[in-house]
Amino acid sequence: MQQRRPILVVEDDPVDREMIGLAFERAKVENPVVTVSDGQEALDYLNAEGRFSDRPALDVPAVIILDLNMPLMGGHEFLSLVKAKPDNALVPIVVLTTSQFDQDLIQSYGLGANSCITKPGDFEQLVEIARAIGSYWCRINRVPERI
Amino acid sequence: MRPILNFGGLSVRHKVALILAVTMLPVVGLMVLYLTTIRQLLVVEDEVVRLFAMQMQTQTIEALVVDMQDGFRGFVLARNEKFLDPFYASEEGFDPAIHRLKDAISEDKNQLRLVTEIEKNVRSLMQRKKWLIDAVRLGQLQPVRTHIESGEGQSALDRIRADLKTLEDVQRAILHDQQARSNRLASFTRYGLGVVVVGILALWWLGSRMLTRTITGPLAALTAAAQEFDSGRPCTPIPIVSTDELGRLARTMEEMEERIARHISQMEAFHAIGKDVITIGPDGLEGVLKRIADRAGGVLNVDLCLVLLWNETIGCWKVGAASGPWHELLRQSVLIREETPFAFQALTTGAPQVVEDLTARPESVLQVRDRLGGKSLLAVPLRGQGEAFGILAFVHTRATRAFTEWEVRLAQQFADQAAIAITNVRLYEASQQRGAGLQSRLQQLERYAADMAHDLKGPARRMAELASLLQMDYKGRWDERADRYLAWLKENGQQLMARIEEVLRLARIGTIREAVEPVAPAEVIREVLKGCEGQVQRLGARVRVAERFPRLACNRVHLSQVMDNLVRNAVKYSSRERRLELEVGIAGTASEPVLFVRDNGVGIAPSDRERIFDPFERLGRDEVPGTGIGLAIVKKIIELYQGRVWVESEPGQGSTFFFTLPPYGELESAEVKQEMREEREA
Fold first, then answer.
1. Which B residues 461-480 touch A at CB under 8 Å?
2. Coil, strand or helix: which one is B566?
3. Which of B27, B225, B317, B376 has CB 3.0 to 4.6 Å from B335, enough for a Cys bridge?
């Protein structure tokens, strides 16, 4: 079942969005990649609201790839809102960010992030990361069926 | 101490005279009495001697009479002239004897009468006997016979004897009397001596006691009081109740002590404002002024103390502060110059102004009098940098009261100190405001730089990622030059990213308060060396680490960053000509341990030794990778702990980087040791 669930990429920068999508493609991750450009859109997707009101009920993401620095709703705010709602809280969130500071890591984990990864600055490495995410979060990791 | 005996307000001189009189006069009296007694005793003794002499003369006369009788009798019976020798001898001795007796008797009429009678009888008897002797010589025995037979001679002799006996009796009685008197006097003298000695001792004791109570005692009390005061204990009443010079001295001393104590407390309060005022609280200038008003009011014990600040622009006074509850009523209120003439006078003349009775002043409006109910006023200028900028006003509202010269002087000194304080606060506040402005602008700039750096990092990363994507997808499809440029593009993007990362790291130091903990440097060094194990092995470096390090009080990550940068630097700048020797050690003292990282690398030229701690300063050797920010990070971290970092180096020989960080636990371990020792002893 999990193979069919989408990977939700929350990223404001179009270059990054494209690269992440491409990286998943190159990594041959079968799950569809859905990209949104800020926290609010991501929430809309999770709650099937706004432009995602007609998304299939079963398309709950297998994993959310989250950037921290975004306009409108930043990564930390999104984390706190998602983890506050029991249904959404079960979706694993991988923070993918430029920041290398402990403080950001501590805050992210504190708000319920399941994993934190630094954006590498090298496409090959990005593909490696995508492959690892696809393999671990989309195949190995288990979440309850009915969310 | 007990109250001292009072002689009804006599002066000390009179008291001394009285004590001397009380002790010395009886002594003199006793001595006189005693001497008189002795003299009398001597007189009596003389009398006794005279009586003895008298008795002896009487007995002599008696013997002469007997001799005369015996001589006569012998001559009559034996008709031998030889027997008449005693007779003539006694006749011859009689006259001097009777004279001596008479001399001895001298004035006793009774005895004189007896002696005269005896003399008469003896002479008459002697005359008769001589006549009879002459008759016998002529051979006429009849008269002698008649004389003997008639018993005439015998009876005359008997009479004489009886008289002598009476005389002796009288003399014996007198002697007896005199002896008794002499004995009485002697025993009186004996006991009298004891009584005199005891009496003198008793009087001396009494005298010394009186002296103690009236003079030496109070003097001791005064001395004790002076010492007590000198030792700084609060003054207590001196236990002298007399009204003489000493009593007056005690009262004066008490007043003096009180005055001194008051002055001391005033001086203490005076100095306390210094402290009070120096501590500028969150209440700023107004708080300082308020404390000055309260303190000054307390020091001079006035009902109201005002700090008036002159506002040159509007030509009015502004109440800076007022003592006690007046403050809320008066703060920031404005007083018109014409209605506060004395304050203005103090301001312009720069000299204290005293108005003892405000109510008696002819001015129609006086703010202090009419609005505040002031009765007496003292205004002293607050002088700062040449001219007065305000005044301190001391006001009695309950009653008119004079200000003493001391109080005026004190008030002025107080004002001078307050003026300095006010000036300081004003300067401080001004500099604070300027400083705060600078600080916030600086912080803003730092934030801005950090934000910008952060914003730059994204594009740099994307550039590098895109370049690497192109490299992957299009390698070999263009020419070799395009491949090389793509590689450079990727490399430069990545360098830019790394450099920005370092800048952010440097900017981050100190913005977040990291936990300070006890850190064992040996562990940190071990981890750091493990981190660059590969490079160290590649260089075949020899690494030496000191066995023991004191624990440091810092953030573990900070020490790790410092060590990491220094060790990596040593590796980076190792000499190509020789094998790297790296030493991490400890020097300095227990209170300031100095850690060092020593290498035998390329070294640093003297001109570069300061520069290397600035960001982005890299020394030559472009092939050495790095951002040039490592030592800047080291410096910033060390300075965070008020430590020092410096380098000693010889170009071509190697460098040693030294740094200090606060030691941990010296004090604590000392305390613990002390506690343990105390426990053991307990």
1. 461-462, 464-466, 468-469, 471-472
2. helix
3. B317
Return the CATH number of the domain spanning residue range A2-139. Answer: 3.40.50.2300
Quick one: closest CA in A to B466, which residue?
Answer: A123
Domains of chain B: 12-214 (1.20.120.1730), 265-434 (3.30.450.40), 514-668 (3.30.565.10)
Q: In angstroms, rounded to a whole number, what is the distance separating the alpha carbons of residues B621 and B161?
A: 170
- pLDDT over threshold 70, residue A142: yes
Residue B546 region, left (φ>0) first, then alpha (ψ -120 to 50), else beta? beta
Q: How many inter-chain contacts (A to B, CB under 8 Å) are there?
A: 49
Contacts with A121 from chain B: Cβ below 8 Å: 460-461, 464-465, 493-494, 497
Nearest to A2 by CA among A130, A146, A116: A146
Quick: pLDDT tens for B401-416: 888 888 898 888 888 8
Q: Encode pLDDT of B136-190 as tens digits.
A: 888 888 888 888 888 887 888 888 888 888 888 888 888 888 888 888 888 887 8
* Torsion angles phi and psi, residue B74, rounded to 5: -60, -45
Q: Is B508 an interface residue toward A (CB < 8 Å)?
A: yes
**Considering only CB atoms, which chain B residues are within 8 Å of A75?**
none
- Cβ contact A82:A26 at 8 Å: no
Q: Which residues of A touch B (CB under 8 A)?
A: 13, 15-16, 19, 22, 69, 98-103, 119-124, 126
What's B599-649 look like in SS3? Answer: ECCCCCCHHHCCHHHCCCCCCCCCCCCCCCCHHHHHHHHHHHCCCCEEEEE
